[in-house]
Amino acid sequence: AQKVTQAQTEISVVEKEDVTLDCVYETRDTTYYLFWYKQPPSGELVFLIRRNSFDEQNEISGRYSWNFQKSTSSFNFTITASQVVDSAVYFCALSETSGTYKYIFGTGTRLKVLA
Amino acid sequence: GAVVSQHPSRVICKSGTSVKIECRSLDFQATTMFWYRQFPKQSLMLMATSNEGSKATYEQGVEKDKFLINHASLTLSTLTVTSAHPEDSSFYICSVLLAASSYNEQFFGPGTRLTVL
Fold first, then answer.
1. Can you tell me whether residue B86 is helix, strand or coil?
2. Nearest to residue A37, comparing CAs of B43, B91, B56, B81?
3. For B81-93, how does the pLDDT look when each residue is reduced to its tens digit (9 = 90+)?
4. Measured distance CA(A115)–CA(B8) in Å, rounded
5. Chain B residue whose CA is closest to A54
6. Mutation choice for A interface testing from B91, B104, B107 by most A CBs within 10 A
7. Do A101 and B93 touch (CB under 8 A)?
8. pLDDT 10s digits, A63-81
9. Are A106 and A93 in contact (CB under 8 A)?
């Protein structure tokens, strides 16, 4: 069965520190998609990145970077030089290609960046 | 991408009343929409898949008669919480499936916060 695990419930860092949010997934599909979303206090989900299972290239977007390791079924997210505005809950999600198009969300990691 | 709206953004109602939440796809026709529920400090849990012109598919444990879903057009799906009780208080989020996307991507609405007194 498909599953997404975000083992870190809450992380606190001081501004300008780097922080990595872990995401481990389980799926039987060979083709699948992974996503990261940010949920600020307003509640609206903010899309951060999508990745398909055939694209293992790491990606960098400004202070954000993602490390996709198919061998360990992980899709970790790093924020470099964190800022107070990065404080939010971050969700990792898995979508399989077996017809239902459902997303399986991890439990989320609450990040607190302290000034 | 796709732009999704929800109305209302926030609603407070008395126990026993019914509440309707609308989810609109503003810039493309959505055959499939999803409804999620999120309790405080928890993850998003899929409630049901809404398909235009047919009955919704509910996840295990979700009461069909309590959470009525109607997807009568390609741009609108509604979720009606019938005879709401305080335990139904939650954040309800809809999404639309962009089937043409190569990623089976969903685009999310801003959410509706329901408080039942």
1. helix
2. B43
3. 999 999 999 999 9
4. 35
5. B103
6. B104
7. no
8. 999 999 999 999 999 999 9
9. yes
